[in-house]
Design brief:
Two copies of one chain form a homodimer.
Chain A: H1 7-21, H2 26-42, H3 49-64, H4 71-83, H5 85-94, H6 98-108, H7 111-125, H8 133-150, H9 161-170, E1 173-177, H10 183-197, E2 202-207, H11 218-223, E3 231-234, H12 249-257, E4 260-264, H13 266-272, E5 278-284, H14 288-297, E6 311-317
Parallel strand pairs in A: 1-2, 1-4, 2-3, 4-5
Antiparallel strand pairs in A: 5-6
Helix pairs in contact in A: 1-2, 1-3, 2-3, 4-8, 4-10, 5-6, 5-10, 6-8, 6-10, 7-8
Chain lengths: 319, 319
């Protein structure tokens, strides 16, 4: 996906949010925004938003001298998601269509990111310490309640489950692109379900190559037990979306070899929606720009278009 | 009010909204954002947001070569507000406390601005032409329904009506600072009510000195019949808030002489909240930054603080 002008105000919002997580003073916060202002005017709109994401979080790291400001948030997300692992498993084992439930939970897990962000906004406004465990618990409960509605999803164009089942059956090597820490536990639920039905599939689970926002790293994949189910690798890039030109040769080899790609999160969608590979994008639309882009891709009429908060399983059928 | 870092993403959002009203292509839209990026890094946070507003809309004018992109919106706002003038008058004449109702309507009229903005967002998302008359009608109806709830307002700190009555009685010369076109009709309702009770008061109604967003100009005041009730002048400045250092000598003379100032709109609050003059700020809090600033000024506890959407009648008692 290209960068739209509407993304520009959002870049500044994201930068401010990230630099505030580091708890530095207002002068350094302003410095990040000033440097971002310089970067924005040179940034081509043909690039995808995660390319700017990489620049933003690079600035935050450089200016605050903090390499991984989201480290604590990521640890807490993993811990809390692991805490409801058995609950998630029960959901799947009691479901009429176990795979569908596992897919929906994997997408619902993507809301953790959204939750973390909107919590920090809301709580900052209320002057409360950001990211208390109680709120993430509440958010997870909300996810569990929400997914039951998803079963009734009728819009095949943005939730292409039947195609997903077909491709899953035919695939030999699945490349699974991770998104956030904590969400990794929800990914594990889906991977376990895939492995239960299709024991012989080779699965590679790719995380980011370095700290970026609350995106999962190798340690998060191990912590959540992904290595018991898949080969865990890094993309070799610390962009908040899989930008191929920045990925390692090791990753690209697997990317080309895999015959099914499961891509989690909006960042990976933004970075890869133009590529010609058989990708399933599993994510929640978190902003109107992406929702509109999905509507355009799916040729949806305006009144039935994708909306912010929609749960998406979008098939990109290139070879 | 100083500029907070949270205002910076919002500056870009406002700039994008304004330049899109002009209907120029994406290249010129991007140029406005790029120029704004340069201006932002030089902008001192001690300045008030309307000072940046002046820069933003100056850039839009310079780059698009359109002097008054909101001209049509302003005309339509006046027309629609005049269309419900009799309805508003009936509201006042049937009210138990006529002045209170007129004050509440004058503040409610400030929502027109909010309406125009949020319409354009919502409608753009849906791909519909911005600012259809039907929507503004709906917004006005919403205002008329909303004001009935305001009567029960209990928070004296952000709605200081009793002080307003006292100062109104004692004042000889009232300076009324206008905000948006259309809202001027609601101002007329309040001015008529003041004149009905206090015939001898001298009232000066000040509008902006040049086109800025949808703010009222001399022509809007005349169109809405304000000149029948008050002396109509311009502030001499086209900033979207009364920044004294930019106002004309004529305006400043009246500003110093007036013994009561009624200031409409968030922009005037942002520009004047630090001044030592007896001002009543009548506006709706349209962003969390301003809501928080009001809470701080009023020393409100966090859980009972001012929220976005709150209707405010704030007295600033300096001499």
């Amino acid at each position: 996906m290209r960068t739209y002008l509407d993304c520009i105000p959002c870049f500044f919002k994201q930068a401010l949010e990230a630099v505030r997580i580091t708890k530095v003073g207002e002068n350094l916060q302003k410095k990040v925004l000033d440097e971002l202002a310089k970067a924005v005017s040179k940034f081509p709109l043909t690039s995808s938003p995660p390319e700017m994401g990489k620049i933003i979080y690079g600035l935050v790291r450089k200016i605050t001298q903090q390499q991984d400001p989201y480290a604590e948030i990521k640890k807490r997300s993993n811990k809390l998601a692991l805490g409801i692992y058995s609950k998630l498993k029960r959901k799947v084992s009691h479901a009429q269509d176990r795979l569908l439930m596992a897919v929906e939970l994997a997408i619902a897990g993507n809301i953790i990111d959204y939750g973390v962000n909107s919590f920090s906004h809301r709580k900052e406004e209320a002057g409360v310490k950001v990211g208390g465990s109680l709120d993430i618990e509440a958010e997870l409960t909300r996810i569990l309640n929400q997914e039951s509605k998803l079963v009734k999803r009728e819009n095949e164009r943005i939730f292409n489950y039947s195609q997903f089942k077909v491709e899953l059956k035919n695939a030999n090597h699945i490349l699974y692109l991770a998104d956030n820490a904590g969400e990794t536990v929800f990914d594990r639920i889906l991977l376990e379900e895939i492995k239960r039905v299709e024991q012989d599939k080779k699965i590679t689970y790719a995380v980011r190559g370095g700290p970026i926002i609350n995106d999962a790293l190798l340690e998060d994949a191990y912590e959540c037990g992904i290595d018991q189910l898949a080969e865990v690798i890094s993309s070799g890039s610390d962009a908040p979306g899989t930008i191929l030109s920045l990925c390692s040769q090791e990753f690209l080899k697997i990317y080309k070899k895999a015959d099914m790609i499961i891509s989690k999160g909006q960042g990976n969608f933004e970075a890869m929606s133009h590529l010609s590979r058989p990708v399933f994008f599993l994510f929640m639309a978190k902003c109107p720009v992406v929702a509109k882009d999905v509507s355009t891709i799916c040729k949806l009429p305006i009144d039935k278009g994708c909306k912010v908060g929609d749960i998406i399983l979008l098939y990109h059928g290139g070879k």
